[in-house]
Predict the structure.
Amino acid sequence: MDEQSRVTSFVAENELEAPAAYRLLDAVSELGEVSKAVCTSTAYGDVPGDVAVPEDELGDALFALLALCAELDVDAGAALETSLSKYEDRLAETGDAGSGE
């Protein structure tokens, strides 16, 4: 995934290296900001059709997740392909994408 390489280079060039645990906390924090945008844009669920999330917030979450993948030496593209295959298999077998857990 080219985006992962860009994030990895950016992190290295700007001396933003961090342990995986901090990368995970950053990813969760960024997803919290996405959640906040959803909550506020929908008046906390009263107007569910008004979901709005600023692109930069999604970008921040994606950056954090790609940085976590890089820190864990996980190829994000390969991980996505594995996940998509898993969902395709579930849908073919059960008609549902959920794990059933």
Residues 20-41 form the longest helix (22 residues). Helices lie at 2-13, 20-41, 55-71, 76-94. DSSP finds four helices and no strands in the chain. The mean pLDDT is 96.
